[in-house]
Automatic annotation (TrEMBL):
Protein name: Uracil-DNA glycosylase family protein
Organism, scientific name: Bosea massiliensis
Superkingdom to which the source organism belongs: Bacteria
SUPFAM superfamilies: Uracil-DNA glycosylase-like
Limits of the Uracil-DNA glycosylase-like domain: 38-163
Length: 192
């Protein structure tokens, strides 16, 4: 986590939000300062922080994981600059490992995350499109619709290599033209 006095202005409000969550829920990574922060037009919600965020301290497409590489490949196919995007997790706190595997969010985790979502969205006034990556993120759709009914919400498969290897249809949905076109049209409609 970056020292409060060293925060870039475009992510400082978001990282203050992360600090509030950290005080309540434990280990919550910061936002990536290389993304657009509060200036972003596209919010990508993944599921939960992965183990790489422990070493990097951020939720980032640059984390050294297959999920981050797949997410980068997906985002690189969009007609947006990195500055137009911000990446976060539906349940933004690290969950305890169970049986050597990453912990899965409980219903209480998801309900708590849904309650925190309006505060996050209030910090992202330029966001036009939210991409929900995976089932956990997609479970927040009602909270998104209630907090910001003006948003275009698009569901995609989670970009984890394990998930994509098990489902050719998920791989096609993530890397095919349909998802990218849907996002491009939504961004263009909002800009026009």
């Amino acid at each position: 986590m970056m020292a409060p006095d060293r925060q870039p202005a475009h992510v400082a409000p978001l990282n203050r939000f992360a600090a509030v969550l950290r005080a309540r829920h434990g280990d919550v990574p910061d936002f990536d300062p290389l993304d657009g922060g509060i200036a972003a037009r596209l919010l990508v919600l993944l599921e939960t922080p992965g183990p790489a965020s422990v070493s990097t301290g951020t939720t980032s497409r640059d984390n050294p994981t297959g999920t981050a590489r797949n997410l980068t490949r997906f985002l690189d196919g969009l007609p947006l600059s990195r500055w137009d995007t911000v990446i976060w997790n539906a349940v933004p706190w690290r969950l305890p490992r169970r049986g050597g595997k990453l912990g899965r969010p409980t219903r209480m985790d998801i309900e708590a995350a849904a309650r925190d979502l309006p505060a996050l969205l209030a910090l992202l006034p330029r966001v036009q499109v939210v991409v929900l990556a995976g089932r956990v993120a997609q479970s927040l759709r009602p909270a998104l619709d209630a907090a910001r009914p003006d948003l275009t919400v698009i569901a995609i498969p989670h970009p984890s290599p394990t998930h994509l290897a098990a489902s050719p249809a998920a791989r096609e949905r993530l890397f095919g033209e349909a998802s990218r076109r849907e996002i491009a049209v939504a961004i263009a409609d909002e800009a026009g």
